[in-house]
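Shipment paperwork, digital attachment
Item: protein structure file
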Amino acid sequence: MECVSWDDCQAFLEKLNAHPAARASGLVFRLPTEEEWELACRAGSTNAYCRLADGTEITEATFGRVAWYDDNASTRPRWLSRFLAFAERLVDRVHEVDWSETLSHKPVGRKEPNAWGLYDLHGNVWEWTETAVGEFRVYRGGSWLILARYCESSYRLWLSPSYRLDYVGFRLCATQRPAADESHAESAEGAEFESHAESAEFESHAESAEDAEP
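Attachment content:
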C-alpha cells in the first residue's frame, strides 16, 4: 500500500476498528510507534540491518536479500528507470507504453523475511508510524527509490501528515482491545436492545388500546 497520507491511515483505521469483525476479534488496529517499528524491523539485530531466521546479520553487501531499493528495483539502468518514472507522469498515451520494469515498489513477500517472519520492513516503501515530531509524523524503513544506507533500521524521516507520495505506505499492528471498551460496547448494545424492546412494547400496548375502543 502506497500513495497514502498519515491522515488517510487514520481514516482507514477508524473504519476498520468500527467494523463488527474487528470488534469481534477483540483487537484494536493502529500504526506502530517508531520504537515498535524498529524493534520489529531489527528482529533481534543490533547492527544496521535486520537478522534472518538462521541468525545471519544482513549487511549492505547482502541487503538485496531482504529489500527492494534503488540498486535492484529494476533490471533497467538506474538513470533510465528514473527518467521513465518521471516521463510516465508526462506522457498522454501511457496505456500504449510498457512500464513493467519502471523503477517502482514491488509486491510484498518477494524477498526474504527477517527472523520474525516479517517482509519488506527495509526498502520497498517507507512506512508511517504513530510517532510525531512537532506537527509532522515519522516514517521509517526506506524505499525502492534510495540507497541502502538510508534504509537502515534506525534511519528516520518525518513529513506532513497530509502528504501522499508514491514511495510512502503503511503497516498496521494490533493490540488487545481494552476491557472497558468491550464493556462500553456491550452496554451500548444492551441499551439499544432495551430501547427497541420498549418501543415494541409501547406499540403493542397502543395497538391493544385501539382494538379495545368501541
